[in-house]
Amino acid sequence: MNIDVLSIGSFPDATNTELASRFAVMRHLRPPAPDALAAELRGRIRGIATEANRGADRALIAALPRLEIISVFGVGTDSIDLAAARERGIPVTNTPDILTDEVADLAIGLMLASARQILLADRYVRDGSWASKGPIPLGRSVGGKTLGVLGLGGIGRAIADRGAAFRMRVIYHGPRR
Asked: How far is CA 149 from the centre of its chain?
């Protein structure tokens, strides 16, 4: 007999396939209203798999008497009523650091694209302006500039490390030194 799991969100196909191979999955794009779930089903659900931005509120947690775990597919737990889970002794898991490097890479990539005018240059070449107007300025260098980071958690630290590799002066603001 499979364990019943409530899936909340839009997971990648590979994740849906893996969940379905291990559990009896009831899929919902958004957190369902507790009274929208049949009483018999509410009594069977033992796990919630949710995206970080979908979560599970107190009413949903209270409506699932056999709930044993809430698993968040993402870093944040802001949309989970952690107090309600704690009161029931229900562990809440997440995937910390899963996208830290990707987010930091993207932040630095956007900074470089802006400073070096990469999108403008791409358009300039594709529309043929280079032939009639000549070269465009190279843009600004990021080396020696100041990089400000708001919050020095995992992602902020990864961005700061990348900025330092570009010989940038890194400053930050956060709750701790």
From this structure: 19
In whole angstroms, give the CA distance from residue 35 to residue 78.
23
Q: How far apart, in whole angstroms, are the C-alpha atoms of residue 40 and residue 68?
A: 17
Which residue bears the tokens 């802006």? 114
pLDDT digits (tens, 9 = 90+) for 57-67: 999 999 999 99
pLDDT at 1 over 80: no
End-to-end C-alpha distance for the chain, whole angstroms? 52
pLDDT in the model for residue 36: 87
Mean pLDDT over the full length of the chain: 93
Token couple for 113: 């694209």
- Angle at Cα 64 formed by Cα 60 and Cα 69, nearest 5°? 90
